[in-house]
Design a protein that fits this description.
This protein has helices at residues 15-20, 154-161, 195-200, 202-208, 218-228, 239-244, 292-302, 335-347; strands at 2-3, 12-14, 24-26, 31-33, 38-42, 47-51, 64-73, 76-84, 87-88, 94-98, 113-122, 126-131, 140-147, 151-152, 166-174, 178-180, 190-193, 211-214, 233-237, 249-252, 261-268, 278-285, 307-314, 322-329, 350-358. By secondary structure, the protein is α+β, with helices and mostly antiparallel strands. Strand 11 (113-122) and strand 12 form a beta hairpin. Helix 7 packs antiparallel against helix 8.
Amino acid sequence: MSQESKLPGEKIAFVEEYLSGENTFDDGEAVRSTMIGQAEYNKDERTVSILNKKSTRMPKIGDEIVGVVEASLGSLIAVSMQYINGTKIHGNVECICTTRHLRKKNVALVKDIVKLKIINHINGTILYTKISSESGNSDYAILPVENSIEGSVGQSFDAILSSDLHAIGEIYLEIHHCLISNGKIDEIDTVYSHPQALGQCSDFIQKKSLKTVPTYDTAGSVNIIKDLKEVNVAAIASKSAAEIYNMPIIQEEIENDPNNVTRFLIFSKQQTEPTPNDKTSIIFSINHEPGTLYEIIKEFSNNEINLTKIESRPKKGTTWEYNFYLDFVGHISDSKTSSMLEHLKEKTKFLKIIGSYPLAELS
C-alpha cells in the first residue's frame, strides 16, 4: 500500500512496494512513476520518497498523447510523450504501448511521431493504447515542414494553405538514413526513397553515381526493393525500417550532414492556450507594389516582436506571385500580437493564421 503525499501526482511508497512494483505503481486514477526522480530511503520507516522530481504529469485513461517512438518491438512500442491533450509536457516520460488489438502489428517505426489514446493501464508501466486512425476521425495531424539540410517541405505548406486545422505544437527530430539492400554496395546502381530523403543524402548518391527513384515514403521504399528481389537496387530509410522488413543495412548514416533535423508541426481542430514561451505561424500574400513587404516587416520591428523565419512559395494558378510563410515569437491571444495582426490584415491581400504553439526544445 502507499502513503499519501502533499504533492499532486506523487506518492511515498514502502520499500517492498517500490522494489516489487519495479519502481512504479498505480493509485487507481492515473499511472504514477517513481522513476522520474531520485529515490531516498528511510530505513527506520521503510519508506521511499522521490527527490528532484522532473514531472508530475502522467496520463490518465482517456487522455490523448502525441509523442515520438523510441523503440518498436513486435506488438509493443515505447513512446516518449511530448503532449498530453494538446498540452506540452517536460521530463522525458515514456509509455509502453501494446498494439495487439490491431491487425497491422508494425504500426510505427522508431522516430515516427504518433498519436495515442490511453484506454487502460496495468501495473503503472504498460499503457494499453489506441492509435489514431487515418479515416479523418483523428484529433491530430502531423506534417514535416522543414529540414535542416533540404529546407522547407513544399507539399506540406501547400496542404496547410488549404486546411482548416490549427497548429498546436512543433517537434524537432534527428534523422539518420541507411542504405538498405540485398546486394553489395558495388552492385547497387539504383536507389529508391522519398524525395526529401534523396535530397538529404545527395552527396552519397552523387559519389556513388546512383540513379534515383522517388517514392511516397522512406519505409515504403524498403518494402518496394524487398519485393523486387534485385541486388542492384537499394532503399534509403531508417534502421528501424530495415529491421521491420528484415532487410540488410549496407551502410549507416549516409546523410549529407550528421546534424540532420526535421521540424514537424502538430495540427488539431482546437487552438492552444498561451504559455510563457510561444511561437505563431502565419501565411499571407501582398500586392506587387514597391515597399509592400518592407511595410509588413516594419510592423514586427515597431512592435518589438521577434520574427524568426520568413519564406516565399509560388502561388498555384498564378505566375510570379507568392505566398509568404512567417514565424514569430508570441501568441495570437497577446494584445500586442493581436493588434499587430489586425494591422497586417489591412496591408495584405490575404492573411491566414496557421496557429500559435509552445516553442519546442531542440534535443
